[in-house]
Amino acid sequence: MSRINTVTNQTASAEQAALFGAVEQQIGRVPNFLRVFANSPAALRAFLGLYGIANEGSLNAQTRERIALALAQQNACEYCLSAHTAIGKNAGLNGAEIEANRNGTSQDAKAAVAVKLARSLVEHKGDITTAEIIEARNAGYSDAEIVEIITQVGMNLLTNILGKASRVEIDFPKIALND
What is the spatial distance between Cα 149 and Cα 139, in angstroms, rounded to a whole number? Predict the structure, then answer.
């Protein structure tokens, strides 16, 4: 059971209901972590705005999901791991790729560099080496895409923290964390 209120359709204020309606239009349902965010409509608006804008960038959906899977495992967020396993499958990732992502790599050489960089950003609290930036550039990532990787890390840290702090009920097929 969630330690922070999960706003339901029945308990939602007019503003919360409008936000839920917008989410339902885009993805067909309102996941529980967004229902926790909805306790503060301002926080939910901020997250949805950042999420929408960040997904307009150059990184493809598969790379974004690879990063999300790697960080969910690294940060031990079972909710996020479960959610991004389902979303990753919908984005075209297979089981072997998802497992590789959870282990901090990828079957795709370029994406492996992005996943490695994302994990290093978390591990070192952003204090990564020049060599890591050069490695990303040598893999074919532009500075814009490196900034997008950093943005994805920030968004995923936010959702990992929310998922763990709230202990939000998992409303995706449950995936256990690796030991």
Answer: 13
Question: Residues, the chain, total?
Answer: 179
What contacts 104, CB < 8 A, 6 or more positions away?
A: 70, 73, 74, 115, 116, 119
Token pair 């917008």 is found at 22
pLDDT in tens, 158-177: 999 999 999 999 999 999 99
Q: Model-level pTM greater than 0.85?
A: yes
Q: Does domain 61-166 have CATH number 1.20.1290.10?
A: yes
CA pair distance 32, 83, nearest whole angstrom: 10
- Six-digit token pair at 130? 């020049």
pLDDT one-digit tens code per residue, 88-124:
999 999 999 999 999 999 999 999 999 999 999 999 9
Phi, psi torsion values for 178, nearest 5 degrees: -70, 145
List the chain domain ranges: 14-54, 61-166
List the one residue out of 164, 19, 130, 26 whose CA is nearest residue 120. 130
